[in-house]
Amino acid sequence: MEQRPKNESYWNDTARQTNYPTLSADLEADIVIIGGGIVGVTTARLLADQGIRVVVLEAQKIGRQATGRSTAKVTSQHGLLYQKLEHKFNLGQALIYAEAQEYGLAEIRRLTEKYNIDCDLEQADAYTYTCLAEHRAELEKEAGLAGKLGLPASLVKDTELPFQVVGAVLYERQASFHPTRYVIGLAETLAQDGCEIYENSAVLEWEPNLVKTRSGSVKAKHVVMATHLPLGMVGGYYTRAFPDAEPVIAAPIKQKLTGMYINVETPSYSIRTHQHENGQTYAIVTGTRYKPGDTVAEQKNFADIENWLRQNFGAETISHRWTNEDYTSMDSAPFVGWSSTIGEDYLVATGFAGWGLTNGTAAAMMIRDLIMNKDNPWQELFNAKRIKPLAGGAKVLKESASVVANLAKGHLGTHPQVTEDLLPGEAGVRKYDGDKFAVYRDEEDQLHIVSAVCTHMGCVLGWNATDKTWDCSCHGSRFALDGTVLHGPAVEPLQRYR
Ligand SMILES: Cc1cc2nc3c(=O)[nH]c(=O)nc-3n(C[C@H](O)[C@H](O)[C@H](O)COP(=O)(O)OP(=O)(O)OC[C@H]3O[C@@H](n4cnc5c(N)ncnc54)[C@H](O)[C@@H]3O)c2cc1C
Ligand code: FES
Question: Is 472 in the pocket of ligand 2 (CB under 6 A)?
Fold first, then answer.
């Protein structure tokens, strides 16, 4: 009988545990960084190199959130993004984006080598491909544009994939790695420079020079919000960067791919392989995006990538299934730098559109330069204060309409209406006396009941059947079965009833 897949990220499952202390004092530092993903830990490393004393506060465990749940391709190949950037901005801005990615990739290589980080960093070519003739012209355009931008890209006809493609854009000399081990390894270098990391230390309150957790605080010259999306209402990024969730699976397969692949059509398939310590090759595959909390799309998109992997790569068992989220900005470029439009409040980095490893590293380089009062030429594109209504108007309207629809109706009515109807393993949102409850009946027949109303801005939560979490379609907050915040921008837990 096929073993049940683990509902955990393959990367997190194959990385050692970290055990940093919980903040339990009132500290002072030069800079405090909220969030220990790739952005937070790389920023800490780069600031430490400048002799700056940093404190990193991580709500859970470092490296295990969006970063440790990704497919971990480290590449300047971002689908068809360069033509989008040229269209929404211009060729010069697309060039800035390309340069930032190449520097991000080089910086990951440099840090891995310098600190001898055990993270399986391997050189690999990256391909954007299509199996549909109607997309060939887009690929030709992307290859031509990438070439003009100085990227090592060219159009090819053949790949090692076990099916015929119509064409592909090949980016040479890119890389793949183990993301959780990379962040853990990089974090380990910080103590020698007098920097401190605290885990299980969620920041609940913040001001430009002071942050507070449940059991301590840190006063600093500046606060870096490396929390994937800035917390709460900071900078209003929740109205300008929009969340998507994606299914991810890992499975042992026979073929080791030398390249990393993503198609341009829908359904979407992105694949790379990783050599497990047990000697087996594992495929890591992600699929089509959907709105967080849309259980039907989640299940459909998982079934789709599982079938695709079985049919094309002969996968017999799926070992891991998990979901991940990322934010796409209204104009497709990330927001990095000083957050507010008045004054200089927080340093932020968000809107990586599924490509936050090179972008996140480039973001850390920009944040270092801003803190050091050094000009950074990439700010011309990434500037977090920019407002480009024309470049992103249609996306803003569409996303705002979906938030309004959620606030009006939520996910009510899509499941059986009474708690008694839920079978073990099922969940649903229920309305009693005008209040909305998120109810899950576990495999042992125990009910877990929390408020179904997101503590960020009141949207109704939806069920993530894979990770067993309550997820918010509006701005991407995620909550555990007991109501604990797993992902912002929310910081307040859900009211728990059972
Ligand atoms: C399915 C999928 C696959 C992807 N694959 C790739 C890929 O192959 N290549 C690529 O370049 N990008 C990829 N990405 C994108 C990439 O994973 C993200 O853009 C990137 O990891 C974001 O890094 P981060 O440091 O901003 O966020 P995170 O890694 O999530 O770090 C933020 C940290 O902040 C902490 N935090 C949040 N709130 C608080 C608080 N209140 N107090 C303290 N700490 C807090 C969190 O716990 C977390 O650890 C993928 C995304 C998805 C959805
Ligand atoms: S994340 Fe904003 S309302 Fe839920």
Answer: yes
